[in-house]
Design a protein that fits this description.
Number of strands: 4
Number of domains: 1
Distance between the termini: 40 Å
Order of helices and strands: HHHHHHHHHHEHHHEEE
Shape: globular
Oligomer: single chain
Strand content: under 5%
Radius of gyration: 19 Å
Structural class: mainly alpha
Strand order of the largest sheet: 1-3
C-alpha cells in the first residue's frame, strides 16, 4: 500500500492534467468575455448561481455535510446540495471530499495536496493542473471516503459531475442567450473557483490566528466574504467537525445561517456547533495571544449538540 504522503503534494506531482488546464482556461476566457455582454438579468443570474454553487453546494454541501458530517439531513436534501456542488466545477463529491480529508490529516505537512509551504501558486491552483489530488485511485478513495463510496448516487455523480453544469448552461442559453451563459456560467464559475482556491492559499498565509493549531491556518475576513464563511479557517481547523466556522459575533458565516435555516425548516438535525470558551470570548487576534490547542482535542471549547 503506497503511503498517501508519497502520492500528494508538490514533490509527488508529475505531468500536466491537460483536460483540467483546457477546461479552466476556457472558463476564464468566457469569464472575461462576459464584460462584452453587459446584461442586468444575466448578472443577477450569476449572483444567484454563485450562491447556489458556492454556498449551498460547496460550503453547506461538499464541505460541512459530506466531508465533516457537521450535521445530518434527509438523503434527498444531501443529494440536492451535492448537485449544487457540482455546479462549482470543482470535481465530483468523492474526489472533493477525499482531497479535503487528506488536507486535514496532513495540513501544511508533506502529503498535503495544496500547502502554501510548497508555493503560493501551487496552493492556489498549481495543484489542480499538475497534481494527483483530482485523480485518486480506488485504494485511496476507499480509505478516505468509505461512506460516499458505498452510495450509488455519489459514485455516479462523481463520474458524471460535469453533466449538471452542461444542463444549466444549456438552460441559460435557451432562456437568455449568450449573455446569460457568459455571466451565470463562465464568469460565475471562474470567480467561485478562485474564492475556493483562496481558502487553500490565502487562509494559510494571511490572517489572524485565534487557536494555535498544528498548521498555518488563519481567519481571513476577505476570503470569508467571498466564500460565505469558509474564510474563518483557523476556527475550522481547531474545530473541524463543527458546522459553525464564524465563532465570534462579528464573524459572518452565511453557510452556518443556511444550515440553521434548514434546521428551522425541519430539514437538518444533529448539528455539531463549536463555541468560544467563555474565558476567551474576546480573545486577541494576534498569534502570540492565540489559544493553544496543540495538546487538546479538535473540539476544544464547547462543542454543542444543537438538536
Amino acid at each position: 500500500m503506497t503511503p498517501v504522503t508519497a502520492l500528494y503534494g508538490r514533490k509527488a506531482s508529475q505531468g500536466t492534467n491537460w483536460i483540467t488546464v483546457i477546461a479552466m482556461t476556457g472558463f476564464h476566457i468566457g469569464g472575461v468575455a462576459a464584460f462584452f455582454f453587459i446584461d442586468r438579468g444575466a448578472i443577477l443570474a450569476a449572483i444567484i448561481m454563485w450562491a447556489v454553487a458556492g454556498m449551498l453546494g460547496i460550503g453547506m454541501g461538499y464541505h460541512r455535510l459530506l466531508t465533516h458530517r457537521g450535521y445530518k439531513t434527509p438523503k434527498w436534501v444531501e443529494y440536492f446540495l451535492t448537485l449544487c456542488g457540482t455546479l462549482a466545477l470543482e470535481g465530483g463529491p468523492i474526489f472533493w471530499v477525499a482531497t479535503h480529508r487528506i488536507h486535514h490529516q496532513y495540513s501544511d505537512k508533506e502529503g498535503d495536496p495544496h500547502s502554501p509551504r510548497e508555493g503560493t501558486y501551487w496552493a492556489h491552483m498549481g495543484w489542480i493542473f499538475t497534481g494527483k489530488a483530482m485523480h485518486h485511485d480506488t485504494e485511496v478513495l476507499r480509505r478516505y471516503v468509505p461512506d460516499l463510496s458505498k452510495d450509488r448516487f455519489h459514485v455516479a455523480l462523481t463520474t458524471w459531475h460535469w453533466v449538471p453544469q452542461v444542463v444549466v448552461g444549456l438552460a441559460f442559453l435557451a432562456f437568455g442567450g449568450i449573455p446569460y451563459v457568459m455571466w451565470a456560467v463562465f464568469f460565475r464559475t471562474s470567480v467561485g473557483l478562485h474564492a475556493t482556491w483562496a481558502v487553500n492559499s490565502a487562509t494559510h498565509l494571511w490572517g489572524s490566528r485565534r487557536f494555535k493549531t498544528r498548521d498555518d491556518s488563519t481567519n481571513n475576513w476577505l476570503v470569508a466574504l467571498f466564500t460565505f464563511g469558509e474564510g474563518w479557517h483557523n476556527n475550522h481547523h481547531a474545530h473541524p467537525v463543527s458546522m459553525r466556522h464564524g465563532l465570534a459575533w462579528y464573524e459572518i458565516d452565511l453557510n452556518y445561517i443556511g444550515i440553521k435555516t434548514l434546521k428551522f425548516l425541519g430539514l437538518a438535525w444533529d448539528l455539531k456547533e463549536a463555541t468560544l470558551p467563555k474565558d476567551v470570548s474576546e480573545v486577541a487576534q494576534e498569534s502570540d495571544d492565540a489559544v493553544d490547542i496543540s495538546d487538546a482535542s479538535p473540539a476544544m471549547g464547547e462543542l454543542a449538540d444543537a438538536r
